[in-house]
Amino acid sequence: MACVVLIAFLGYSCCTFKTEILRLMTDLQSVNEAKQILENQYQTLFDQFVLLNQSYFTLDADYTSLNETCETLAQNYTELSNEYYVLLTNYVDLTIAYHALNETYYSLLQNYTALEQAASSNYTMFLSQYQTLMQNYQQLLQNYTQFKSEYDEMHFAFYEPLLADNKVAPTVEELTQWLAADKTDKITYAYPDFVCGDFAVMLHMHAKMKHWDMGVVGVLGNLGDGSEFNHAFNAIICAGNTLKYVEPQTDAVFKATIGDGLWYFHPGFGMVHVREFIVMILFDNG
Q1: Which of the listed residues 34, 99, 102, 207 has the most CB atoms within 10 Å of its CB?
Q2: What is the side-by-side strand order in the sheet with 228-238?
Q3: Residues 247-269: pLDDT tens digits?
Q4: H or E stretch including 84?
């Protein structure tokens, strides 16, 4: 009976032991699984630690750089603050000067307004006088320009030589048109004050003002009725090497062959016998 009880007890104990072993095996497996989870978490945390450590060194370097930048900015701030106070001092001085100038400006403005009001009553009169003066000035300027041009021509005619490269040969038509406008022929003949030679010399000078090479010639001879003929007139070589004679008292332009011992027709006088032909003022002879 005791054996049976012992056997039963041992059987029960063995069964219990197996159950406990199974339980322990299950717990061991759970512990291993938890261990694996913890190891995985540890690895994850370690990897994060490595990243955080790298970030820490990066942030530490950035912090050092920012700290240096901060110190530089602080120095700049101090310098700028000093400059600001200097500028502020200057600003205050300028503000005071501005107010003084502003007061001066308003004082001058008042004076200007008073002067403007005083002058406004005379403005219309002064404007009218100014406009009149400007009109007179413009007229005088036109007259001056015209007189200056005429003076230059007269100065050239009286004081400068007519050189070869400065000569102009007019056409016969231009010569005729110019003579019609020239006033030499309108002068009254007055012996002995203004005679044929004076007419010829004056026309010669007028022609020189146009850079025309007009000469003065004279004929000593007789008319067809035998009366004495002593006369001065003009000669000019026109374009095309054409010799023309001009009677300055009548503006007659004529062509003739004039020479010692020859006869020629002179407008206003008729046929003339030439004893002597004289060139008193030279001209181009072609």
Answers
A1: 207
A2: 252-254, 242-247, 228-238, 214-223, 270-281, 263-266
A3: 999 999 999 999 999 999 999 99
A4: helix 2-159
DSSP state of 235: E
DSSP 211: T
Q: Domain 167-281 adopts which CATH fold?
A: Beta Polymerase; domain 2 (3.30.460)
- Do 251 and 264 form a contact (C-beta atoms < 8 A)? no
Helices 196-209 & 2-159, crossing angle to 10 degrees? Answer: 170
Query: Which tens digit of pLDDT belongs to each residue from 77-111?
Result: 988 888 888 888 888 888 899 889 888 888 888 88
User: Is the peptide bond prior to 267 cis by the omega test (within 30 degrees of 0)?
Assistant: no
Give residue 62's pLDDT.
87
- Write down the residue that tokens 């004056």 correspond to: 202
**CB contact at 8 A, 153 and 209:** yes
Cα 187 to chain centroid, rounded: 53
Burial of 198 (0-12, 13-18, 19+ CB in 10 A): middle
Question: How far apart are alpha carbons 229 and 258 in whole angstroms?
Answer: 14
Q: Which residue has the tokens 């200057």?
A: 90
3-state secondary structure of 273: strand
Rounded distance between C-alpha atoms, residue 265 and residue 253, angstroms = 12
- Of the candidates 201, 278, 285, 163, the residue with the CA atom closest to the CA atom of residue 236: 285
- Spell out the long-range contacts of 50-53 with Cβ–Cβ below 8 A and sequence spacing 24 or more: none
**Separation CA 204–CA 194 (nearest Å):** 15
* Sequence-ordered list of residues with C-beta below 8 angstroms from that of 251, at least 6 positions apart, any chain: 179, 180, 182, 185
Report which of residues 11 and 69 the model is more confident about: 69
